[in-house]
UniProtKB/TrEMBL annotation:
Example of a GO MF term: nucleic acid binding
Pfam families, per the entry: MT-A70
Name recorded for this polypeptide: Methyltransferase 4, N6-adenosine
One cellular component (GO) term of this entry: cytosol
């Protein structure tokens, strides 16, 4: 069960189960030979067993034992804070009770169902080695000449030929589709990746996004996780960030269907939140309708950072909006209301920037048959189109456990389904 709890505060989700639901049927291709495998994301990647503050930061609250109190570190005086820090402090105080009360409700409910029981559920397997060369490949692809619109050839291709061959797949200038009813373990660029069923992706840089536009689809849901600038990213050089002037160039009006739900992950810097609300969304014709929060808890239900830490918060912001094209005069009476200040609570991945899937949480607001797109994606989802320069990052087989599906009945059923 991926959505474990749903109530008036939001949802508690099992992020690993959200991933696994796309791999119930999986075929591994090696050359032109196929075998049936059981495929699951490595659960130890979500075994965050305790919060990242000091033990002295822990402070129980009435009726709950999962929260953390303020840090013992001497706080700076008010006049020592810069304007950005003052704005963040004010914002935190506005939403603090929403985060605290909603998280308590969802965590308590999850624990009553047997979740978030702590370290006794921890797995001891080593974490997969994290290295991704896809961004470097996209840098190389920048050297390829841009194709003029009138010269654009077929912009979509199938992942697999009839014999299972993937040697001629062009990952950089065409959208690649897996149209099969099963996920496929295939070799791309000399590495093995797991591609979900009915998924599509384009591995490209911001400057090579034209194939996605020429793909010709209008999407009912667009989720994006832009590479926001921050100090830790600058120090680690983990990825290149994009300023707002470049983010404005995202072709949202060319990709969004009327009333498309647009969801943007935002860091806790108020300047980034204002950028989305006051610059990006108005520029694209998107109306802000709600603000949600992703709350990160450990496997025992504690916030992963002290709630009142002046440095890192245990939550991130999502800004939700609806695309309103100027020419659209359609009625909005059938549009599902999106509630404000909802929480998505989950145990986070140990890997930087791996966000939980929003597919199940957002389905009631866009419909089960909605066409969905993720921008700046680092993984794929069934029945979604994904774009980014690391779009296959968490699809590498090193993140999955693959075992032979040697049950004759299971294989017979899959064979029957493929014919």
């Amino acid at each position: 069960m991926s959505v474990v709890v749903q109530n008036s505060h939001g949802w508690f989700v099992d992020s690993c189960s959200l991933i696994d639901q796309g791999y119930s049927r999986c075929i591994r291709w090696r050359g032109n030979k196929k075998s049936h495998v059981k495929c699951g994301f490595q659960r130890q990647c979500f075994q965050v067993q305790k919060h990242f503050g000091n033990d002295s930061d822990k402070a129980p609250v009435a009726g709950g034992r999962y929260t953390c109190g303020p840090s013992k570190k001497r706080p700076r005086k008010q006049n020592e804070l810069n304007q950005g820090e003052i704005d963040s402090q004010v914002f935190h105080e506005m939403i603090r009770s929403v985060i605290l009360e909603g998280t308590k409700s969802l965590v308590d409910s999850a624990q009553s169902l047997g979740y978030l029981k702590g370290e006794k559920d921890a797995l001891k397997e080593p974490l997969p080695f994290q290295e991704c060369n896809l961004a470097a490949l996209c840098e190389m692809a920048k050297e390829l000449p841009l194709v003029a619109d009138e010269e654009q050839e077929e912009c979509v291709q199938f992942l697999l030929a009839k014999d299972g061959c993937t040697s001629h797949v062009d990952l950089f200038s065409r959208v690649t589709e897996n149209r099969e009813d099963w996920s496929a373990v295939v070799t791309l660029m000399g590495e093995e990746y797991v591609i979900p069923q009915h998924s599509a992706f384009l591995l490209s840089d911001f400057k090579q996004i034209q194939p996605l536009i020429h793909y010709g689809r209008k999407f009912d849901l667009i989720v994006m996780d832009p590479p926001w600038q921050n100090k830790s990213v600058k120090r680690s050089r983990r990825y290149d960030f994009l300023p707002s002037s470049q983010l404005k160039g995202l072709p949202i009006p060319l990709l969004a269907a009327p009333n498309c739900l647009v969801v943007t992950w935002v860091t806790n810097r108020c300047s980034h939140q204002r950028c989305v609300r006051d610059e990006l969304y108005p520029h694209w014709g998107v109306e802000v309708i709600a603000e949600w929060f992703w709350v990160k808890v450990s496997t025992s239900g504690q916030f992963v950072f002290p709630l009142d830490s002046p440095h890192k918060k245990p939550y991130e912001v999502l800004v939700l909006g609806r695309y309103r094209p100027p020419s659209d005069t359609s009625k909005r009476s059938s549009e599902v209301l999106v509630e404000d200040h909802r929480l998505i609570v989950s145990t986070p991945s140990v890997f930087h920037s791996q966000k939980p899937s929003l597919s199940e949480v957002l389905k009631p607001y866009v419909g089960a048959e909605a066409k969905c797109l993720e921008l700046f994606a680092r993984s794929l989802q069934p029945r979604w189109t994904s774009w980014g320069n690391e779009v296959l990052k968490f699809q590498h087989t090193r993140y999955f456990t693959l075992t032979a599906a040697d049950d004759p009945e299971d294989i017979a059923k899959e064979e029957e389904g493929t014919n």
